[in-house]
Amino acid sequence: MTPDELARALAELGHARKAVQRPAAERLAAAARADAAVRAAIAARLASTDARERWGAAYALAHVEPAPRDAMPALLDALSSSDGDVRWAAARLVVSAIRHEPGLAALVPPLVAATSPLQRKMALYCLRDLAAAVAVDGTGIAAALGDVDPAVRMAALAAALAVLPRTADLAERIATLLDDGEPGVRRVAAVTLGQLGVATPAVTGRLDAATSSDDPTLAKTARDALSRLGASTSAAR
Length: 237
Fold this sequence. Notes:
By secondary structure, this protein is mainly alpha-helical. The protein has helices at about 5-10, 20-30, 35-45, 50-60, 70-75, 85-100, 115-130, 140-145, 150-165, 170-175, 185-195, 200-210, 215-230. The chain folds into three domains: about 1-65, Alpha Horseshoe (Leucine-rich Repeat Variant), CATH 1.25.10; about 65-150, no CATH class; about 165-235, Leucine-rich Repeat Variant, CATH 1.25.10.10. The longest helix has 17 residues, at about 85-100.
């Protein structure tokens, strides 16, 4: 990479168009694998005041090495991006980095209580995806089941299923979400209860009631959950 090519690629790290930003990051990553000075030039952009440039630099570094410690703050910050493509790409890179360096897992749980609901949601999905690979701290997941944002509550259901011990207390807490004000949360709660596999009377009773819901999707998922739990409709009444 010539000095002019390097300068141009670095300038494009913060480009508004992904079709420009991503190839620039990938060119820089390829050059950085062979030249530590290029890596240093990319890393310097992690201190940029422009969030897109920080993300571009972090994306590039994550393609230079599997767990770039200096890029982790920018990757975690990108979990709050208003751009869904950026959020999910950042989540994949965060999860990949932690799988390579499990000690980095401690960076994620505090974000379950972050100010940004997008960041809270994505942190929970990261915890879900990490559960099978590394030991993760599930502190805060149960509390997130009561988050003010319905998308966060749904993410908490996914994380709880993957991370938390499958206890009666957890199942009964999830069962209360069958009465949630958001239809999507109610449906996901029913599916989660079937997958959780804990059939206390409180759980089967709430699921049984949900089979009579005016929401046909909820009614069906509740019946399916009861079937998975080995309970039949009205068996708990």
